[in-house]
TrEMBL record:
It holds the Pfam family Peptidase_M20. CDD domains: M20_Acy1-like. Keywords: Hydrolase, Manganese, Metal-binding. This is Hippurate hydrolase. The Mn(2+) ion enhances activity. One of its GO terms (molecular function) is metal ion binding. It comes from the Bacteria. Mn(2+) binds at residues 104, 106, 139, 165, 367. InterPro entries: Amidohydrolase, Bact_exopeptidase_dim_dom, Peptidase_M20.
Length: 398
């Protein structure tokens, strides 16, 4: 079986770069990826790949059957959506849409999978079937969950499913993965501390919700330090505060809103965070003569890689760039990804590809206005997908 290296896909570099930069220039956010999905569908169809549209509004699935005998089916997934963010880059392919930007590299993810699809369609030397899954609305909205609810795996059953994401600050074209929990569960929470408010000069005549709110912001770190086992990892961060008016600082507000995010890797720690946040909010409010309204919303589950599929992904990455450029036991990351919903339904693995460090360019972090996907890794990512198909469906070996 032929090993596919990035050099073997060099003839695709200019085309993939043009596609990626065109998508970057025209970012579309959750469930609005009409132009992007049209590009994807037209490209797949032009390469002779069967195309299905409409799941989760703008989702696209391309299906390719190999020319060798085989019944196994795998899914390869890329996300398509952008973020609500004003780009500050000044290069020619910067966003032309105000307050929308491909600041997480989904333009690159989509393009890498398109590159693999084109190569495989030209030479489908494998047994079984590949579904190329182009997913909308990864950024905080859960497009993967919606695709599943609308029948993704009922219509396109997969024995395994795989995903990939770029990693700024990690060496260009290197890969990192681990079996088991790799990305965290992402939940949101909100507490509204309610009192009477009053005159800032006469706080004893009312109840002041700013006092328990301030204590709460400090105290919740005790949940991490004293309730979460030291062998586990978890994060509690406050991301929103709202109270009173800057125009009337002598008024004690009647309501204080404190909201944030929690991250965890196991069901036990996730349950603990939800319970202890509520207990702490209510007890601190009661001690100050106030009330606390508490809401906890479970958003994305932890992303857990299957052992077998992680091994296959490591093999495919080694075929692509060599074993010395593959980290098979990278530490877990407290970021989150809605590909976790797919891994709840099917065995699979999610891998990181290096976007480059500061000495290579591409050093700006994701979700920042100066980020850009590194076009030099487009053929590397495409080659990884091709090798993964060979490993899964044609028994290639490094």
């Amino acid at each position: 079986m032929t090993r596919t290296t990035p050099d073997l896909l060099a003839s695709l570099q200019a085309e993939l770069t043009a596609i990626r930069r065109d998508i970057h220039r025209h970012p579309e956010t959750a469930f609005e990826e009409q132009r992007t999905s049209q590009i994807v569908a037209e490209k797949l169809e032009s390469w002779g790949i069967e195309v299905h549209r409409g799941l989760a509004t703008t989702g696209v699935v391309g299906t390719l059957k190999g020319n060798r005998p085989g019944q196994k089916t795998i899914g390869l997934r890329a996300d398509m959506d952008a973020l609500h963010l004003q780009e500050k880059n000044t290069f020619d392919h910067a966003s032309v849409i105000p307050n929308k930007m491909h600041a997480c590299g989904h333009d690159g993810h989509t393009t890498m999978l398109l590159g693999a699809a084109k190569h495989l369609a030209a030479s489908p030397d494998f047994g079984g079937t590949v579904h190329f899954i182009f997913q909308p609305a990864e950024e905080g909205v859960g497009g993967a969950r919606v695709m599943i609810e609308e029948g993704l795996f009922d219509r396109f059953d997969c024995d395994a499913v795989y995903g990939m994401h770029n990693m700024p600050g990690f060496p260009k074209g290197h890969f990192a993965i681990r079996s088991g929990p790799m990305l965290a569960a992402s939940d949101s929470w909100e507490v509204i501390f309610k009192g009477t408010g009053g005159h800032g000069a006469l706080p004893y005549r009312g109840t002041d919700p700013t006092f328990p709110a301030g204590q709460f912001i400090v105290a919740i770190q005790g949940i991490i330090g004293r309730n979460v086992p030291p062998t586990q990892a978890a994060v509690l961060s406050v991301g929103h505060l709202a109270a009173g008016s800057a125009g009337s600082p002598n008024v004690i507000p009647s309501d204080v809103v404190v909201a944030g995010t929690s991250r965890s890797f196991t069901p036990e720690v996730r349950d603990l965070l939800e319970r202890r946040l509520g207990e702490m909010a209510r007890s601190l409010a009661q001690a100050s003569g106030c009330e606390a309204q508490y809401k906890y919303v479970r958003r994305y589950p932890p992303l857990i890689n299957s052992v077998e599929q992680t091994t296959l992904a490591v093999e495919a990455a080694a075929l692509t760039v060599g074993r010395d450029k593959v980290e098979p036991n990278t530490p877990p990351v407290t970021g989150a990804e809605d590909f976790a919903f797919m891994l709840e339904k099917k065995p699979g693995a999610y891998i990181m590809i290096g976007n480059g460090g500061s000495e290579e360019g591409g050093c700006h972090n994701v979700h920042t206005p100066l980020y850009d996907f590194n076009d030099e890794i487009l053929t590397t990512g495409a080659a990884y997908w091709v090798n993964l198909v060979q490993v899964e469906l044609a028994d290639a070996k490094a």
